[in-house]
Amino acid sequence: MKSEQENLAKRETWQSKWGFILACIGSAVGMGNAWLFPYRLATYGGAFLLMYLIFTFFIGVTGVIGEMNLGRAARSGPIGAFGAACAARRANCAWVGKALGIIPLLGVLALAIGYSIIVGWILKYTITSLSGSLLTINSVTGFQMAFGQMAAPFGNNLYLLLGLLLTFFIMSQGIGAGIEKANKLMIPLFYVMFIGLALYVAQREGAQAGYQWMFTIDWAELRRPMLHVYALGQAFFTLSLAGSGTVIYGSYLSDDTDTLDAAWKIALFSTLAAILAALVIIPAMATTGAKLSTSGPGLLFISMPYLFAGMPAGRLIMIIFFLAVLFAGLTSLVNLFEAPMALLQDHFGLSRKTSVLIIGALGTLVALCIQGVVAAWMDFISIYLVPLGAALAGIMFAWVWGRQKVQQEVSKGRPSAIGSWYYPLYKYVFCIITMLVFACGIIFQGIG
Ligand code: PHE
Predict the structure, then answer these.
(1) How far is the C-alpha of 168 from the C-alpha of 87, rounded, in Å?
(2) Mean pLDDT over the full length of the chain
(3) What DSSP element (H or E) covers 381?
(4) Is the CB of 332 under 6 A from ligand 1?
């Protein structure tokens, strides 16, 4: 077996700075933006948007910078990076970090598996709206039944397999020629398609009420603790702060990239995607006079297709909508599977193709088997593992590796060294709030 040093020496890097930023936007923009965000916004109105913006830009960005730099400093995913942080503190303690790094790694692998099931549903809706068979359903109960069948145990094997095949094909091509290229294609298309859809929905009678709901802040809502819990969880989930995905993408980043600049661009585009998705979904629901908050998670698979089916050019609208959401899902999925794959390459010296095969086989097998329990599976991971992973990454970098290292790494690629504001913000505000997200998740049973 080759030494870890040799494996690390031949690691790939991103082909361009924008390629890296787009890949991170691809990771960020996913079901969190297209599904969860419109749903929460519909429940709480503009007050949710306000808190989400505050949490994203003041706290989330700090964490994204931290995770990127932790990965870049160690040139490794969470296991290697946590190990390096602990070794820097005490030479013989690397094993503690490595052991703790297993938590976020398994967390994203489990998230990837659950996520792939949802991507499989989206793929089914994309293909059946293309073929026209989805349009033969013409009632809400019809869509409910179709969704129920699909979400049952072994209910969507074919499309799940197809989705996973596509994901692993992209990944097998490598960082530059696979992940970066796929993101460069899919992410711009996502925005173009959603802008088109938002403009289309704006023409519909009754859409106005939707905008009013989205952008009016009812200050009394801010007194509801759950609003803050959800807004915080949403900001973290959607920025892919889980101690793994952003760490591994950062590990392929060269030292001449300014991560502060990259992080706020990622936060900006992720927020834009969430608002665009809401600008399509909420006004579209408003045209029927329906109250969105009662439509629950069935929103994407029951309410929306039913609504689109009744609009002029409904089939085309449905195809565009699901294709765009599919792009968002796939680009998050490749990120979620990357850290476990990279582990096999970096630590065990396996080739990329072999690593894809191993993770692919494992992921596919588990995904096939858990189709009927995906909701509970995703809840468990997003409530416990995602915030725990994010907190561990923050603690490892800020508390264990410490001030000097953070200051030095975050300053790389910048015209001038990072200001002295960053470290305390990261060490205290970000880390403590992240632990709070974790605690709130346990107390309130559901944050994402
Ligand atoms: N950010 C993704 C979304 O909004 C989810 C994700 C979480 C992806 C953690 C990678 C890591 O859907």
Answers:
(1) 33
(2) 93
(3) none
(4) yes
The pLDDT value given to residue 1: 52
The percent of residues above 90 in pLDDT, for the chain, comes to 83
Structure-token pair, residue 236: 């973290």
Tell me the one-letter amino acid at 152: A
* 328/25 Cα distance (integer angstroms): 9
Q: How many angstroms separate the first and last alpha carbons of the chain? A: 41
Q: Is 331 in the pocket of ligand 1 (CB under 6 A)?
A: no
> How is residue 133 annotated by DSSP?
G
- Is the minimum distance from the CB of 336 to ligand 1 under 6 angstroms? yes
Maximum C-alpha span of the chain: 67
- CB within 8 Å of 268: residues ≥ 6 apart: none
Residue of 392, 245, 226 lying closest to 293 (CA atoms): 226
* Ligand 1 neighbourhood includes 242 CB (under 6 angstroms): yes
Model pLDDT for residues 307-319, shown as the tens digit of each residue: 998 899 999 999 9
CB 236 near ligand 1, within 6 Å: no
Given a cut of 70, is residue 292 above it in pLDDT?
Answer: no
- Segment 9-20 mean pLDDT: 89
Instruction: Return the SS3 of 255.
Output: coil
**Protein residue with its CA nearest to atom 10 in ligand 1:** 240
For residue 293, give the DSSP letter.
Answer: G
Per-residue pLDDT, 72: 97
Q: Residue 43: left (phi > 0), alpha (psi -120 to 50), or beta?
A: alpha
Structure tokens at 247: 């760490």
- Residue 271 CB less than 6 A away from ligand 1: no
pLDDT tens-digit map of 248-264: 999 999 999 999 999 99
Which of 116, 325, 332 has the most ligand 1 atoms within 8 A of CB, as the residue to mutate? 332
pLDDT digits over 315-361, tens only? 999 999 999 999 999 999 999 999 999 999 999 999 999 999 999 99
Check: CB of residue 246 under 8 Å from CB of residue 77: no
Where residue 349 falls (left for φ over 0; alpha for ψ -120 to 50; beta otherwise) is left
With both helix axes pointing from N to C terminus, report the angle between 46-54 and 225-238 in degrees, rounded to the nearest 10. 50
Atom of ligand 1 nearest to the CA of 328: 12
Q: Dig out the tokens for 367 from the structure.
A: 């995904």
Q: Taking phi first (over 0 means left), then psi (-120 to 50 degrees means alpha), and beta for anything else, what does residue 216 get? A: beta
CA distance 397 to 403: 9
Residue by residue, DSSP assigns 56-100 as: IIIIIHHHHHHHHHHHHHHTS-HHHHHHHHHHHHSGGGHHHHHHH
Q: Which residue bears the tokens 């990279």? A: 342
